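can u do me a favor
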């Protein structure tokens, strides 16, 4: 009888402890499935009809979780992988989008792992979500965005240690270092500081990447300024990248205009390049412009349909493309354009 009572007490205690632990922790699976049909044309490379993944938001799935450690301290993790919905494939690096573990508290957040760089975070508030044929992402981190250097940190970096400021009356900030660990182009240091309050969201960011002992550092700095004008959001980004003597200055403006159950998207970018040799695509005459227009119609809180048209006009030897990387056969100075119709589901 005593053994039975002891066993019952032990199992009750274990169940209580287990329930308490579960009550203090949570794990969430999340994702986006986004696929579109359309056609792109890239100068001499010709036209291609295609089914494409991630044209309004990058298709992805992931796991994130948080554990309450007590005393205002929490532990968290975030794992996120890209999905090619059109082909059923995953990125070559499985958790390519993000793989981090964090400690959070009143002091802010300390985050370690593979993450977006502060300069990249400053580009995300784009009217097109920095993806698709109409987005400014074509220039922010498309082909040639590292100016031909070895820098791999235009969007994300491996081996990072990051610190995020706690909430301070609208002020936010992110500071990050990435260890090179013998990989040329991954040693990075950067930071971002901003303010969001009322109709204004403004932030500045700077980052520097070592590209090798005998080459100059790759530098990137930008300023984001978004403004709510009634229901309309105005999007502005001035983004400068330098790898001496090459430099590109991108000025983007755009708008998200609510309309019924959806929104109209408009965007424009001018990419002013300089410093490179004639014919390199980074010379003084190798400039490009982007024009995007689209409409998103919300069928529910989680599902929407959209259509987007984008056009990139190149000069000189520039070969920017709505495909983000110019296809073989496209010549310098040629125009790239694309039209897409897609559906996006968030879970």
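np, heres the sequence
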């Amino acid at each position: 009888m005593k053994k039975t009572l002891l066993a019952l007490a032990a199992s009750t205690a274990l169940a209580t402890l287990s329930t308490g632990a579960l009550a203090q922790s949570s794990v969430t699976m999340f994702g986006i499935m986004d696929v579109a049909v359309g056609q792109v044309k890239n100068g001499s490379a010709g036209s291609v009809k295609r089914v494409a993944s991630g044209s309004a938001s990058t298709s992805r799935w992931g796991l994130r979780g948080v554990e309450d450690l007590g005393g205002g301290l929490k532990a968290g993790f975030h794992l996120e992988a890209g999905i090619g919905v059109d082909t059923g494939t995953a990125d070559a690096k499985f958790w390519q989008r993000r793989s981090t573990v964090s400690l959070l508290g009143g002091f802010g957040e300390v985050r370690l792992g593979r993450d977006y760089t502060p300069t990249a975070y400053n580009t995300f508030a784009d009217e097109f979500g920095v993806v698709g044929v109409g987005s400014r992402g074509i220039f922010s981190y498309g082909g040639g965005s590292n100016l031909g250097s070895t820098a791999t940190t235009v969007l994300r970096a491996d081996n990072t240690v990051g610190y995020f400021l706690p909430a301070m009356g609208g002020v936010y900030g992110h500071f990050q270092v990435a260890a090179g660990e013998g990989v040329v182009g991954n040693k990075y240091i950067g930071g971002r500081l901003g303010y969001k309050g009322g109709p204004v969201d403004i932030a500045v960011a700077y980052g520097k990447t070592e590209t090798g002992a005998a080459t100059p550092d790759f530098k990137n700095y930008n300023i984001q300024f978004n403004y709510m004008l009634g229901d309309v959001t105005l999007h502005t980004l001035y983004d400068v990248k330098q790898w001496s003597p090459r430099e590109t200055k991108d000025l983007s403006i755009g708008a998200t205009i609510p309309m019924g159950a959806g929104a109209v998207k408009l965007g424009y970018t001018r990419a002013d390049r300089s410093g490179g040799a004639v014919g390199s695509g980074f010379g003084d005459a190798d400039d490009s412009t982007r024009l995007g227009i689209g409409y998103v119609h919300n069928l529910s809180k989680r599902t929407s349909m959209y259509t987007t048209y984008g056009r990139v006009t190149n000069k000189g030897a520039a070969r920017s493309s709505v495909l983000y990387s110019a296809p073989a056969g496209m010549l310098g100075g040629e125009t790239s354009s694309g039209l897409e119709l897609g559906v996006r589901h968030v879970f």
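The two ends are 51 Å apart (CA to CA). hope that helps!!
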